[in-house]
């Protein structure tokens, strides 16, 4: 699957139309997906004049190369959606009290949607600072669950709980998501791999009807961009 990351420039520019995006890069066909039900109760980031402005801070523990990876990942959203990540300065505190803080803690993780105040995205170094992981965690922060957690997932995949590591079953729980009338995408950057959190090397997730179906992706896809635009009403 061709990724956005291999084709798109990293500098932020005004939001383009979907037609312009599809002409600029080689992208998979559009499939739009689910958002957390919390997005209807206040965990969406605020939109002002058509843009979603989100301040960020990057921990000084990251190397210059790691910082560039994180910033480059954010710039994909800046360029192809109405989300605008910008570096937080001290004078922003009055107007922008909610912001994302990228830090190296234990593992790769993020809260779902806007939490209020300082909100952590953990990108443990080494291991978590890659473009695909950064996009994955940013999508969580924007309000999206894992693809295999969506409410209709049982029609598309089988979860093999016997193969899941003890204590990790909660990562596979089904959520009553707002699927926005969209289709399931096995190759989403938000989808777990076949053996994610396996206790014995055997599959924890298998696609129904096609056990050889590849699950997940190391790169953000066209459909991941589409769903951000739909959730936040990007023009």
From TrEMBL:
The active site is at 137. Keywords: Hydrolase, Metal-binding, Metalloprotease, Protease, Zinc. GO terms for molecular function: metalloendopeptidase activity; zinc ion binding. InterPro entries: MetalloPept_cat_dom_sf, Peptidase_M12A, Peptidase_Metallo. Zn(2+) binds at residues 136, 140, 146. PROSITE patterns: ASTACIN. Residues 34-235 form the Peptidase M12A domain. This is Metalloendopeptidase. It comes from Takifugu bimaculatus.
């Amino acid at each position: 699957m061709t990724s956005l990351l291999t084709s798109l420039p990293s500098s932020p520019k005004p939001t383009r139309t979907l037609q312009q995006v599809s002409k600029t890069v080689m992208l998979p066909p559009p499939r739009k997906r689910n958002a957390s039900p919390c997005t209807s109760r206040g965990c969406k980031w605020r939109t002002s004049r058509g843009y979603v402005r989100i301040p960020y801070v990057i921990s000084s523990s990251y190397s210059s190369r790691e910082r560039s990876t994180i910033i480059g990942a954010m710039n994909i959203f800046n360029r192809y959606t109405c989300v605008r990540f910008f570096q937080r300065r001290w004078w922003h505190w009055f107007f922008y009290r909610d912001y994302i803080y990228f830090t190296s803690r234990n593992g790769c993780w993020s809260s779902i949607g806007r939490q209020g105040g300082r909100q952590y995205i953990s990108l443990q170094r080494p291991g978590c600072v890659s473009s695909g992981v950064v996009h994955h965690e940013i999508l969580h922060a924007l309000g999206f669950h894992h693809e295999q957690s969506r409410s209709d997932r049982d029609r598309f995949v089988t979860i093999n709980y016997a193969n899941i590591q003890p204590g990790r079953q909660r990562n596979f729980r089904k959520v009553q998501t707002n699927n926005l009338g969209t289709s399931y995408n096995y190759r989403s950057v938000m989808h777990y791999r076949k053996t994610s959190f396996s206790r014995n090397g055997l599959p924890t997730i298998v696609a129904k009807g096609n056990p050889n179906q590849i699950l997940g992706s190391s790169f953000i896809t066209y459909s991941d961009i589409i769903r951000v635009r739909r959730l936040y009403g990007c023009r």
